[in-house]
Amino acid sequence: MNLFDLSGRVAVVTGGNGGLGLGMARGLVKAGAHVAIWARSEEKNANALLELHALDAGDAIALPCDVAEEAQIEEAMGRTLEAFGRVDACFANAGISGSGTAIPDMESQGWDRVMTVNARGPALTYKHVTRHMIERAKSGDPGGKLIATSSGQSIMGVNKSSDYAASKAALNGLTRGAAFELARYQITANALLFGFYETDITAAANPKFAEWMAKRIPLRRPGDHEGLEGLAVFFASSHSDYITGQSLPVDGGLCIS
Q: SUPFAM superfamilies per the record (predicted)?
């Protein structure tokens, strides 16, 4: 008996063509789910599909989508429904790093860009996904999973990262609001507060940041991408049905150090 079989389930993963998103998409496909990646880079989308199709399990498609543009979200949602007929789980994972500036040097344009992608993007993604989920619920097929990629920085202080931290804190608030509002349709909403993982974003950061993190994380290592697979499957499965409105640190103990 496979406790975590997702056959027949459909998941959306924004920003799912690399990093944390691809790790989660990999686990979902391995569990038999159909996965729709919504992401900007056509080249990375194509490479992600090659990897996911090679798993010979669930199906996957990749659709061009910038979550800063609502029209593109709406288009991606429509094409996902055309391909798979439904959406059962949405991983709002797409995000960008902060401007890396101190508060006195902050510029409004940089602040707005981070908030647009990291906070407004998930909100608008949920808008279009939950319209479909609510319609299903009203026709007798309730349920749905909303899972946001947040950050430990939303509850911790880090130098020159106030814009990023604020955007992820807003995402935590969105999660709690969505969980309360949508519970009547058996739709759950949770946020995963990731700590330090090696990704394209962290690779572009100051090397001293990785060194500092390695010393501060109690488990003394970055997060492993293979672990993301089971995490995603759990939150997309029925076994997480009684967990909602939570912001769960996934950080090797970083937030308690």
A: NAD(P)-binding Rossmann-fold domains
pTM: 0.95
H or E segment to which residue 182 belongs = helix 162-182
3-state DSSP assignment of residue 183? helix
Domain 10-248 has CATH 3.40.50.720: yes
Radius of gyration of the chain (CA): 17
Using DSSP, state whether 155 is helix, strand or coil: coil
Q: Please state, in angstroms and rounded to a whole number, the distance separating the CA atoms of residues 66 and 76.
A: 10
Tally of CA atoms within 13 A in the half-sphere of 250 that contains its CB: 22
Residues involved in catalysis: 151, 164, 168
Q: Do 131 and 138 meet the contact criterion of CB atoms below 8 Å apart?
A: no
- Per-residue pLDDT reduced to its tens digit, 213-243: 778 899 988 899 999 999 999 999 999 999 9
